[in-house]
Task: structure prediction
Amino acid sequence: MMQIPVTSAGTLGTKHLVLIVEDDVDAREAYERFLSMNGFRTAVASDGREALRKIASLQPDLVVMDLAMPALNGTEAIQAMRESKSTSRIPVLVLTAHGRDGSETVRTLDCEGFLLKPCPPSELLAEVNRVLERAGK
Result:
């Protein structure tokens, strides 16, 4: 199981809802626990289909999206989000083990950030904060 330290420096607080979309149960639980301990409200989804349902109903402030998932992968889920008027402006932070060029992924998928797994918790927190700040959240 992934060990994640708690840090409260630089968090934006509990008003922000982050949807974590990750098919690996241990990683999903670790990210959820870490963000919750740092003042964020969280929700989770295990694949792209579940993510799209939750995005539409919850309207999260940020989606942290894995790319390689069963049923509907992260790339397809992001594309569907961008095509829907109600979800097209929700920021997406890609967090994946599959990828090398983050800037190309950001451009191609029209997302706001990119991190490679395994990612130190401090980097995840910094990137979540950066994306939310840039989105004016």
Notes: The helical segments are 25-37, 48-58, 74-83, 102-109, 121-134. Confidence is low (pLDDT under 50) at residues 1-12. The domain at 17-119 is CATH 3.40.50.2300 (Rossmann fold). The chain has one domain: 17-119.
